[in-house]
Design a protein that fits this description.
- The protein is an alpha+beta fold and 239 residues long.
- Helices cover 13% and strands 33% of the residues.
- The protein has 2 domains: 4-101, Hepatocyte Growth Factor; 106-235, Mannose-Binding Protein A, Chain A (Roll).
- It is built from 3 helices and 15 strands.
- The strands form 2 sheets. Strands 7, 8, 9, 10, 11, 12, 13, 14 and 15 form a 9-stranded mixed β-sheet that branches. A 6-stranded antiparallel β-sheet has the order 1-2-6-4-5-3, covered by helices on one side.
- A hairpin with an 8-residue loop joins β10 (170-175) and β11.
- It is elongated and about 65 Å long.
- It starts with a strand and ends with a strand.
- The relative contact order is 0.15.
Length: 239
């Protein structure tokens, strides 16, 4: 299990509509890293804060290691980066500082949930990949209680538009891309035992193959290329 000892903040300036400060939280870990198969050497003689920034700018980087002596900076990925050829990374020391990027995970009934895409919405497949990068998966909903909780916790906001389908929705892990009308959970590859369709849903035969959750906790199927928020899920104990 990952053991944390402390947290620190890194402040970055991003030039989006002018300079804007961004805040990133990292936790210090005390476990020793032995697996460098999905590691990327960012460089040597790097300043510590720049090492943290390099990890943040790499969408696949969830952890980084830093040597105070050689100033080597190594990023660790949770999933293989597409079109990238990993080279063998040999750490200069087993006593490198080890940090993990922290996100706003919320615990409920033994699971952790992360709401993403509030500012940058994604297509369903992109959302699925991002959850995987975080060591998680698009949420798989097992009960009405869970569906209602997700809607009230993440989706219902004061700025929702009157149109139920236009805003305040989020991708979940259900789809029928393989067989029309046969809905599956993409992570567990199992059929949906529980469903919570909005009235008049689901829609068959119109290429609406991916499921999102609405502000009322009900489900809707829509085109997978729709730019949407999303909810990731993982177990509360993360190895």
């Amino acid at each position: 299990m990952l053991q944390r000892t402390s947290c620190f903040l890194v402040f970055l300036l991003s030039a989006v509509n002018g300079q804007q400060q961004r805040q990133i939280l990292y936790s210090r870990l005390v476990d020793e890293v032995t697996d460098y198969s999905l590691a990327e050497l960012y460089g040597a003689d790097e300043h510590f804060s720049h090492c943290a920034e390099l990890c943040f700018e790499d969408d696949y980087c969830m952890e980084f290691l830093y040597s105070e002596t050689s100033r080597d900076c190594i990023g660790r990925h949770y999933v293989r980066k597409r079109n990238y050829s990993y080279k063998k990374v040999i750490p200069p020391s087993t006593r490198m500082l080890h940090f993990k990027r922290e996100l706003n995970w919320i615990m409920h009934s033994g699971h952790l949930y992360y709401y993403g895409g509030k500012e940058h919405k994604l297509k369903w497949r992109k959302a699925k990949l991002l959850c995987k990068k975080l060591g998680a998966h698009l949420v798989e909903i097992e009960s009405k209680e869970e569906s209602d909780w997700l809607a009230s916790e993440f989706i219902m906001r004061d700025d929702c538009s009157p149109d139920m389908y236009e805003t305040c929705t989020a991708w979940i892990g259900g789809h029928d891309r393989s067989t029309e009308g046969h809905y599956m959970w993409v992570h567990s590859n199992t059929s949906l035992e529980f469903t919570n369709w909005n009235p008049s849903e689901s829609s068959f035969g119109n290429w609406s193959d991916c499921i999102d959750i609405l502000r009322n906790g009900k489900w809707n199927d829509r085109h997978c290329w729709f730019l949407n928020s999303f909810i990731c899920e993982r177990n509360s104990v993360h190895i």
